[in-house]
Sequence to fold (177 residues):
Amino acid sequence: MMSVEAVLQFLERHQEWSFWVALVFASAETLAFLSLLVPSTAILVAVGATISTGALSMFHVWAGAALGAVIGSTVSWWLGQRYGARILASWPMNRDPQLVERASAAFRRWGLPAVFVGHFFGPLRSVVFLFAGMTGVGFWRFQIVNLPGCLLWAYAVPKSGEIGGDIFGWLWRLFGF
Fold:
């Protein structure tokens, strides 16, 4: 598995790949199975901290992460629509039945807004897009809620790293390190 440090070292040498790196990790974070296995949020926050140094473009990272989030969440929706409950009965989903139940309850309670919220709540992210597909939400209805969630999530995650990097840099200069 790729570590946060390895990704940052790669981007240090290949800044021109920031769009593609953000796309891959955002796809992994919003894809039902990979989101449980890949530390994509930590990587995207760390990439955001690198943005604060001026080494990377926020626009390129945001654009890649937004497209990756759309790809991952849409594939998850399709998997839910196509394979439904069989996915939830298989590994890795069957490892945490409470997670599946929480996502199911959230989707029953909030419906489509749960898709938007799912982008920002890690435990839901791994299954809420599947539930949208499983419950028969149509493609365009799903995208009406999914696309704004993808755009905002793709901005907020690296931006939080950038803000953290700015604060760390300010403190570093303040105390004269």
